[in-house]
Design brief:
262 residues, alpha+beta, 27% helix, 32% strand
């Protein structure tokens, strides 16, 4: 058991995202899938949440018919203009997004409010509400200077992830020892919460600065997804624990001290 995560004065978080999908109804006459709750549910959710998220945006996807844009967010509600946190709604999909100023207490509270609204406002008649995908993603970025440090050495020494290739590979092909791109994807089954853990680490940019961008994804599908407030709250806390443990393992030592301002 590790100690509690320390206070991070300089957190590497880019964005925390919760996303939930539900099953769409199939219209045999039109040959299309549709969300029987949309757009009425969006209006009712706005009325419930407008005190916390008063700034609304219609996204470019609203130019498409709802039936032509399943699982594509169409409306955005923000706490402040152009700021975070925000929630997004579309046919069969909701998201909660947080960035600068993120706190788990506030983030999880917003998630529960939004999911409760979906459950409350989904029509009782017709197609039943069935959740089919539930996930949390945490995107982080750690600056790196590829000209001064081999990306694979940085990955091993700072992010505790080792990638090795046979030396003959470089000799036979007359290659530079330092890669100019890195993209690593790993996936593991999870028992608590029931689902999967996905890891992605790749060289990219953050605010035009070279960086390792790494994503931690916890995802459940179909019957693995909780369907009421108390069980969803438990799912959120378990998923957060997995994400926190993963982050602390990736960043232990040098990076954690840097994030803490030591």
């Amino acid at each position: 058991m590790r100690e509690k995560t320390p206070l991070l004065l300089y957190p590497p978080l880019i964005e925390a995202i919760f996303e939930l999908h539900w099953e769409l109804a199939y219209d045999k006459e039109k040959g299309q899938y549709c969300d029987i709750s949309y757009p009425m549910m969006y209006g009712r959710i706005y009325e419930r949440l407008k005190k916390d998220f008063p700034f609304i945006e219609d996204l470019p996807s609203t130019q498409l018919l709802p039936e032509a844009s399943p699982y594509l967010v169409r409306h955005r509600m923000r706490k402040e203009k152009d700021g975070y946190p925000l929630v997004q709604i579309g046919p069969g999909i909701i998201t909660v997004n947080e960035a600068k100023g993120y706190s788990w207490k506030s983030f999880s509270s917003n998630v529960l409010k939004l999911v409760d609204s979906v459950i409350d406002f989904y029509p009782e008649q017709g197609h039943p509400l069935r959740f089919i995908r539930c996930e949390i993603r945490f995107l982080n970025a750690v600056p790196i200077e590829p000209k001064n440090e081999n990306p694979l050495a940085f990955l091993e020494e700072k992010l505790h992830t080792r990638i090795e290739l046979d030396p003959d590979f470089f000799i036979a092909n007359q290659l530079d020892l330092q890669p100019h791109s890195v993209n690593l994807n790993l996936g593991y089954d999870l028992q608590k919460p029931k689902g999967s853990l996905g890891l992605n680490v790749q060289l990219g940019k953050m605010n035009e600065i070279e960086a390792y961008v790494f994503q931690i994804l916890i995802q459940s599908i179909q019957q693995e997804i909780p369907s009421d407030h108390s069980s969803l709250e438990s799912w959120l806390n378990q998923a957060h624990s997995v994400a926190e443990n993963t982050f602390c393992t990736f960043c232990k030592g040098f990076l954690m001290e840097k994030f803490c301002g030591l």
